[in-house]
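Appendix C reproduces, verbatim, an entry submitted by the partner laboratory led by Prof. M.T., so that reviewers can inspect both the input and the predicted structure.
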Amino acid sequence: MENVTQKSDVELVIITGMSGAGKTVAMQSFEDLGFYCIDNLPPELLVTFLDLMMKSENKMRRIAAVMDTRGGDLFDSLIGALDDMIQMDGVSTKLLFLEADDETLVRRYKESRRSHPLAEGGLPLSGIRKERALLSELRGRARSIYNTSELKPRALREKIMSTFSSKDDTAFTLNFISFGFKHGMPIDADVVFDVRFLPNPFYIDELKPLTGLDKDVSEYVLKWNDTQMLIEKLTDLFKFLIPQYKNEGKSQVVIAFGCTGGQHRSVTLAEFFGSRFKEEYKTLITHRDLDKRKG
């Protein structure tokens, strides 16, 4: 019973289902797909939020909202709110229901040492059975029902990515960063390469005031045999590593090149590899320390 309008201004996905079935992983996956995510907002407030947003000039085009029994009595109003959202013009509403068998849910609660929200201090199984009964009508309305009993978080993520990604989605991003070691290591880098062994343009008078963004500097850095050998070996390494990171489910990989000041050699290498892989992946280039030169 979902809105199947072909051309809608806003795509809304309601994520619901059994506690412990993977809603946190699901919300993180939608965030990586570019959705604006809302966790456990009362249903009536979500309707109000959508109404205000549709009247705003700056609309959020893709929204994912987790709705579950943590809301207590507020959850009872979800069915009525869902009907209201389905009737909203310009909103395409989809319902994703996550479930798992009782044995799997009990095991997950025991492993996490958390209590079930509906167990009221009792055994997890009593809360699970109560929740399953409460969710039966919502389950019947959902077109997408995922049983996560045999799904690892990575597999659930891949399933969501496959089902809800659009043609414009580029969930995986390569970030190439240049930096200067004298300004400190980048704390968000996955891989760091020290290129201070390469010939330094800093000691060439006409190149010293320039940066790796300038043609004369990049040509100087790239002309050396050591640089070409490094590029050859790193290209082979990246061709192996990057697909492994992507298959592991990472949404981005940050590859950093460091030289002394972050002006010449690291900038040249970040620019080179950013250009080298931009046809295969969404690629971003950041020169962290380019504006830190004295004077």
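The longest helix spans residues 225-248. Additional entries are available on request from the coordinating office.
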